[in-house]
Amino acid sequence: MLTPEQDLILRCARSHLNPGERDTVHKALCADPDWHAVLQMAAWHGTLPLLYDYLYEIAPEDTPLDRPVSPPAEVMNQLGIDSRVTVQENLYQTGQLIRLLRRFEECGIRILPFKGPTLALLAFGGLSRRPFCDLDLLVEPSRVFEARDLLFEMGYRYEMPLSASEEAAYRRYHYHLRFVSENPASLIELHWRATPAYFGPSPRFTELWDRRQLVPMGGVLSPTFGDEDLALYLCAHGARHWWNRVGYISSLSALIESGSILDWPLLLHRATDMGLRRVLLLGLMLARDLLGAALPSLINEAIRSDGALPQLETRVRGWLFMGEPTPTGLLTGPRFHLAVRDRFIDRLAYLFRSVVTPTAADWSFVSLPPTLVDLYFIVRPARLLNDAVRWLIDAWN
What is the pTM of this model? Predict the structure, then answer.
């Protein structure tokens, strides 16, 4: 059972409201929600601009109910301020992306921006309704360090200082590097994979480039993922983060409802080939059931045929409004990641990579020279075992 605050957040996270949905928003307003909680939830879930737009759009005199309702003036004022800040930050990030696109093109380095401004424009038709705090750039793996040097030249630096061995370990085991500049709002994630290896296969850069689409943006055409690649990426990204924010579902739903001509048979076929069929179907199911996204009969039938999906959706609904970055419970998150995988071999790969893929804590545990970076896959299990022994000793004492 949703609280009035949660119900209002979901109803105002859709890409558009038809007359019937406007009536349901009025009814949610009549439930006298806790507006402090509503603002906190909308900020966490990344839906403040949508909430403001719909509450501003629905005038009290339009209500079909006996008594007009509207949010308190101070709530609308705060939402207006937050929405203007979102627009300002998004415009700044978009300007930075245009600058990056031009510079990378001059240097002959192909990049594919994704999420950020391109997703806002494709899914929501503008830059005001989807907040984003960084720029995600995908580059050919063979040109990562050329792209890094170009970012250094443009005034960016690593978010955290990296030694030569840590940098080599990042390139070997992870999928992106984070950069900042003197302006704290300038955050760039430079990817050589769209998703981390532990979560499963990722299309090669050349495949994504060949299927790219162009998005008009401030006098330039920004390449980005094709619609099918973007939809599958949004489902994988949401599943990797346990679908713990309404904003993840809202972006997927908005893309579906945006008028983009998705090739649904191709999308389902591609997801199945990559072992991401259940990942895709869960995301589409959430967009349909929580935000009313219209799906074709092919997808609805595929959802019905997977008996594991209802339980997975129930899990997501259970932690969606907990306001936590990860589900509670030591193994809850990993168990969910295992459950959304189609194939047994992918579950084994997830377990193996989770155990052996080193992190910053492993680099701090033992510092290896760049030539021995491949040995970090041994260091991580040793560190985990050491931590477990220390925990047992502390518990015993």
Answer: 0.91
